[in-house]
Amino acid sequence: xxSSPKAEENMVELISGFVVECRGRGHFLPxxxxxxxxxxxxxxxxxxxxxGVLDEVLPEFYSKHQDKxxxxxxxxxxxxxxxxxxxxxxxxx
Length: 93
What we know:
This protein is mainly α.
């Protein structure tokens, strides 16, 4: 989706900030979550689509796990996000 390293870095920061906001606790993500976010960016047709899918999936995902001491890692929702991105990409084409 992104072409330059700076643009990708900005996108990672944007998506990471969105994820942290959805989690509702903590200010940082584990390294493994950043790697998953980078794979989502590579899979998404554009930033608007990725943010739309994340807005649709993440609030419900985190609300199901809010009673735990530590928020779950994104690998638990990775397949669902990538499937939605594929579905949306096919629909847009």
